[in-house]
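Reference record
================
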Amino acid sequence: MDRRQRELSPFAARPGGLAAILLLLCLALTGCTATGGGGSGAETESGDAGPGVGASPQGPAVSGYPAFDFDARTVTLNSGYEMPILGLGTFSLSDEEAADSTYWALKAGFRLIDTARIYGNETGVGRGLQRAIDEGVVAREDVFITTKIWTTDYDDADAAINTSLERLGVDYIDLMILHHSQPANDVDAYQALERAVGDGRLRSIGLSNYYEPEDFDRLVEATSIRPALLQNETHPYHQSGQMKEHIAQYGTVLESWFPLGGRGNTQTLFDDETISDIARAHGKSAAQIIIRWHLQVGNVCIPGSSNQQHINEDYDVWDFELTEAEMARMAALERDARFSNY
């Protein structure tokens, strides 16, 4: 059995963990205008990171979209801060798993960690970060931490920001995101994020699960700071081209959650004939091909895993490039088909 067939479905029950999260997801989404789920959950394989290959010749094709620096492995956000373009997602990980995965990821070379209040593992991410700092693996300023405010916290977003800071054990958060569109009160919540940028608690702010240009613009037109990032479900079968083209005018970067299809769906992508064929040509795994595609097309990518070997392999995507012909083949996989239904 392929290792990715061992991944948990996002609807699998786990005492005190994923089942409770998903119940909250279902309850809180009532009345939201955009559906989707947060985070990346697919486990992947890994090996040691190879040398960088420099700037990708393909890159994002959208005019005005922020350029990725493949030498620095970062993108400069419209807030002026540099963000790593490859990170670790922690959706569905327990506190203990998140602590270990965060530590392993930082040792492997990752400098971006993505979590959320609704994941229930901000404390674990903070512990993993602190362990890496204590052991001299990283300094706090080397690591870019993203977390998200859940919809039920929108009415008291200021308090939610402070609580996330406490759980993570940090003095500032590099990027905080509203987790879902919720027209009833997401503008108020975003304005709380803006105030936190002003007082230094947050450095950059953004959105997740805004799938229609009109919905994105609704919030932008009612607020002052343009979103630095939009995190939506994005993978070869749902490439988010419309939203990427739309947000380019704001200098907003797209980040992919479920970048490999998400738990329970990864094998569908890994078995795709095009992806498998490209993987064989490069001597890489299907997961590495998909991750490399995300980066070359201009998607910040956050695959997730609780397996150290898989985490290492996820970062081993810097010593090869997909050709223009291979990128065209990947583009042709677009089906406008999401795997999630929340």
About this structure: The radius of gyration is 18 Å.
